Amino acid sequence: MYKFLMILILPYLLFAKSATLTSIIDGDSVVLKDGKTNVVCHLGDLDALEVRVNSKLKREMRKCKFSKKEFLDAGLLSLNYAKSILKIGTKYEYTIERYFPNKNPVCHLKIPKGLHVELSPYFDKLMISSGFALPYVIYSEPKYSQTLLKLAKEAKKQKKGLWKSHFNLMKCLVEQRYSLRSLR
């Protein structure tokens, strides 16, 4: 019995880590302090709007024909929602699921017990189901991708978050991403 229990618990102990949140960069990126190391994590399989001008923002502005102000306003709403969920100085459990081609880790952040856990215990699912981010499903597991797309579809249907305040902008972003064709 003891061996069976260890087989069940061992993978969790090996892969789940705990770290303190030191900074929220934007709606899909944070800095975690894991011991003495700072880890810049992309949070889960989500894509939040940008809060600063960069090449991604310029590309999206060019394709969608919305102003920089509209994009940055939407990005700020996403960031503020993330800040309402995550608290600087709090310890969070996380796992590194994989790495992006640019070597940045993709982390799944578990939200501690509280109000938001009723909706979803993972940050990426909560951001998508609340309408403040889109799924980033290119590298994710197919089953997980379907879950995220279903959550996004429901957020769009119910006009939650940015689907309420920036519907046409979100619609354009979905139309620009082949991986999100099921949300069109």
Fold topology:
Blueprint lengths: L1 H14 L1 E10 L2 E6 L2 E7 L2 E2 L7 H10 L3 H18 L5 E9 L5 E6 L12 H7 L4 E2 L6 H16 L4 H4 L1 H10 L8
Helix pairs in contact: 4-5
Commentary on this structure:
Residues about 1-15 have low confidence and may be disordered. α4 runs parallel beside α5 (about 140-155). Helix content is about 45%, strand content about 25%. The protein is built from seven helices and seven strands. The protein has a single domain, classed as Beta Barrel (OB fold (Dihydrolipoamide Acetyltransferase, E2P)). It is globular. It has about 180 residues and is of the alpha+beta class. A hairpin with a 5-residue loop joins β5 (about 90-100) and β6 (about 105-110). The strands form two sheets. Strands 1-2-3-6-5 form a five-stranded mixed beta barrel. It has a two-stranded antiparallel sheet with strand order 4-7.
Characterize this entry briefly.
The chain is α+β, with helices and mostly antiparallel strands. It has helices spanning 2-15, 55-64, 68-85, 123-129, 142-157, 162-165, 167-176, and strands spanning 17-26, 29-34, 37-43, 46-47, 91-99, 105-110, 134-135.
